[in-house]
Design goal:
Strand order of the largest sheet: 2-5-8-11-13-14
Order of helices and strands: HHEEEEEEEEEEEEEE
CATH superfamily: Hexapeptide repeat proteins
Low-confidence stretches: none
Mean pLDDT: 92
Number of domains: 1
CATH architecture: 3 Solenoid
Number of helices: 2
Shape: elongated
Length: 148
């Protein structure tokens, strides 16, 4: 699945006209993942269960060493132009929704089923609907964990 995306993205950068869209459709049918060739994705990104049910906005940016669970949506929000940015080392649990102009910081964790509509600081774990900070990772200051 990731290999098909990478090939599609490479062909898109080379301005090959039809093949990127065809590879997108193959990914969509075989793996039920919507991962457009225009997504900027770093190295060593893991999509659980081959990205089963995952939807990623065409302009989203995903860093390196990111884990994305199944059924995750990384997308826009009505009335907003900007889309999510997922920084290096982030973990996004199954069924999480990351919507709108948000940044999920380096090493942050988004719990399963969370709805992220505000920035997640680096190293912080968020959970709930809407997502609220519940814990800072080791070595991170506890400031900012009073909620949003």
């Amino acid at each position: 699945m990731i290999q098909l995306y990478r090939l599609s993205a490479c062909l898109h950068r080379w301005h090959v006209p039809v093949l990127p869209r065809l590879l997108y459709m193959v990914n969509r049918v075989l793996f039920s993942v919507a991962l457009p060739a225009t997504v900027v994705m770093g190295q060593r990104v893991t999509m659980a269960y081959q990205g089963l049910g995952t939807v990623v906005h065409a302009r989203a940016r995903i860093g390196s060493d990111v884990y994305i669970g199944p059924q995750v949506i990384i997308g826009g929000r009505s009335g907003e132009v900007a889309v999510p940015v997922i920084e290096d080392g982030a973990f996004i649990g199954a069924g999480a929704r990351v919507l709108g102009p948000v940044i999920v910081g380096r090493g942050a964790t988004v719990a399963a089923g969370a709805l992220v509509i505000a920035d997640v600081p680096a190293g912080v774990t968020v959970a709930g609907v809407p997502a609220r900070p519940i814990r800072a990772s080791r070595g991170q200051p506890e400031a900012g964990l009073t909620g949003r």
